[in-house]
Specification:
Blueprint: E1 8-14, E2 23-28, E3 31-35, E4 51-54, H1 57-61, E5 66-70, H2 76-79, H3 82-85, E6 93-95, H4 97-109, E7 117-119, E8 125-128, E9 131-137, E10 146-151, E11 156-159, H5 177-186, E12 190-194, H6 208-220, E13 225-228, H7 234-246, E14 250-254, H8 256-268, E15 278-279, E16 292-296, H9 306-311, E17 325-328, H10 337-349, E18 353-355, H11 370-380, E19 384-388, H12 392-404, E20 419-423, E21 428-433, E22 438-442, E23 445-446, H13 451-463, E24 465-472, E25 479-488, H14 497-516, H15 522-541, E26 546-553
Helix pairs in contact: 4-8, 5-11, 6-7, 14-15
């Protein structure tokens, strides 16, 4: 196929219409490049589910065509699915040093080989099949974040990754405006850009502004200080350490993910601290309360996180006492507001002083707001544009911003996961759909819990279960013993004896009908019991418990 006829396909497998599980396929002919492989955390109705990852059926079906995976940064919503993906697809993975450092820890936990990890740095350009991939430094809430320039036989793609434009970054490494501008001057066919903060007006404040808020909070704190933040927010952790040093406090780190990230960041030089500043959590009792800072996980009120366990008095090593200052340096992710509020309430009841909320200035976003988004568009000036990384309202708002800047409506593509966006040098269309969706991870099971199992879990959580146990003679259909009814999560049997007695009668009536009609097949008998008992219980209680008949035969 000549270059003039070649088509570029962009297929998001995650990250459109949702926050998380970012994953995008770039395909030209028989060569595929994969950008990111993230996870998302379960929604409230996903009972018992640990993680949600993208459906990679398309990648498995085209396994031989996948040349490599390139990563924009080390957040879970961009790398968290890799332990599962790399068990299915054995390809090189390119990322910056910190990104691969965090990823290697995740892979080792899942006994997945780290041999194919390939470190790159901002400014590098590498060739992968027909693609030439450049890594462009951007600011985000984790160091070593990059955007991507991907030169294809059809044209240039720019993928911003997650970014903000911080003019005073903690590490002094600013977003590479010149590189984005140079690409724009040479001509960009397509841009995919972060939409997370597309609804937020103005500019996102610099990470450095949080330092002043920390200084104020530390100055006011008379006793122990506990700071909860995202474990991946390395710059935030550095600012806590710097402030602790100024106030002559020791720093202890708590929470598995926090300990892992801080250890990796110290080893790689992304976090620095004077010798003796960081102490083991077991050593905090050797110092007076006004000499200690604890950095911990739990800023989102996660039930098993360190801060939440402290708040309910269940942490083995740290007990909250009156006078402690708790700084929650994060804003709740949508859906986590109740969990965070509950944690704050528990801490306040224990007599702690809790510093939280945007007005306190102890958190800033890692994503570009509207004015920064406009600047990125003006620097890159793409011919076509796909807003990514956001819920549907964010994508719509981002598309409107692009139209306000003069981009033709027909050149902007708002889509769903699995849609095939197809481009030539001159045209862009939606050219079909591939399999995409959610794969639920529950313990060691990947994909073995689906909608039917979740429906059963919801029913069990809402209305409970009734188990009907009886023994029957297989030849005659006579009931030898039972029926006995066991209730769990439906009603308290001792206080509902009349209901249970009536329920037992309904089961016996259903069995009599089966015998009269010569229905001796176990499946049919169970179905009749479920129908008869289900109708009766709904009439009496307006509840629909799961009904599980168990028939033993002699």
């Amino acid at each position: 196929m000549s270059k003039g006829q070649q088509k570029l396909q962009v297929i998001p497998l995650g990250g459109l219409g949702e926050i998380g599980k970012n994953m995008t396929v770039i395909r030209v002919d028989d060569e595929i490049l994969l950008i990111d492989a993230g996870l998302m955390f379960p929604e409230d109705d996903m009972l018992g589910i640990d993680l949600v990852i993208p459906d990679i059926t398309y990648l498995i079906e085209n396994r031989e065509k996948v040349k490599a995976i390139v990563l924009t940064h080390g957040h879970e919503d961009h790398i968290g699915a890799l332990p599962y993906v790399l068990q299915q697809i054995d390809v090189p993975v390119y990322g910056t040093r910190l990104t691969l450092g965090i990823l290697s820890g995740r892979l080792k936990e899942h006994s997945v080989s780290c041999e194919k990890l390939r470190p790159v740095a901002a400014g590098d350009v590498i060739n992968i099949g027909c693609f030439s991939v450049g890594f462009i430094r951007v600011n985000h809430s984790i160091p070593d974040a990059v955007g991507l320039s991907i030169r294809t036989p059809v044209g240039m793609i720019v993928h911003t990754g997650d970014y903000k434009l911080d003019y005073t970054p903690i590490d002094g490494e600013m977003t590479d405006f010149r590189r984005f501008s140079d690409l724009g001057n040479r001509g960009v066919l397509l841009m995919l850009a972060d939409s997370t903060n597309a609804e937020r007006e103005g500019h996102t404040p610099s990470e450095r502004t949080v330092g002043a808020a920390f200084d104020k909070a530390f100055h006011n704190a008379k006793q122990r200080i506990i700071v909860a933040t995202f474990s991946s927010n390395v710059h935030r952790i550095q600012q806590v350490i710097d402030t602790a040093v100024r106030y002559k406090r020791k720093v202890a780190v708590l929470g598995r993910s926090m300990v892992n990230v801080v250890t990796i960041s110290l080893e790689m030089g992304y976090i620095t601290a004077p010798e003796g500043t960081i102490i083991d959590i077991d050593e905090i009792n050797f110092y007076s309360a006004n000499q200690v800072v604890i950095i911990t996980t739990g800023s989102q009120g996660e039930p098993m996180s360190a801060l939440t366990r402290m708040a309910v008095g269940e942490h083995r090593k740290v007990t909250i006492v009156p006078g402690d200052t708790i700084i929650i340096s994060a804003t709740p992710i949508p859906g986590n507001e109740k969990l965070v509020s509950k944690t704050i309430d528990h801490l306040l009841k224990l007599g702690a002083n809790v510093v939280y909320g945007r007005s306190e200035g102890i958190h800033v976003s890692g994503h570009a707001s509207q004015e920064e988004i406009k600047l990125m568009h003006n620097l890159v000036r793409p011919k076509f544009f796909i807003p990514v990384h956001g819920e549907y309202r964010h994508l719509i708002k981002h598309a409107k911003l692009a139209r306000d800047l003069g981009m033709p409506k027909e050149n902007i593509f708002i889509g769903e996961n699995g849609q095939i966006f197809e481009f030539t040098r001159d045209t862009g269309t939606v050219a079909g759909k591939v399999t995409a969706g959610r794969v639920l991870v529950d313990g060691l099971g990947v994909g073995d819990v689906g909608n039917i199992v979740l429906r059963d879990r919801r029913q069990l959580s809402q209305d409970g279960i009734l188990i009907i146990v009886l023994t029957m003679n297989k030849e005659t259909g006579e009931v030898v013993s039972g029926p006995d009814i066991v209730s769990r999560g439906f009603v308290y049997v001792r206080e509902s004896e009349e209901l249970m007695d009536e329920a037992r009668e309904r089961v016996e009536q259903a069995l009599d009908r089966c015998r009269d009609e010569r229905v001796l097949e176990w499946g049919s008998i169970k179905s009749n019991i479920r129908d008869a008992l289900g109708r009766y219980l709904f009439d009496k209680t307006r509840r629909r418990p799961m009904i599980l008949p168990i028939i033993m035969e002699i």
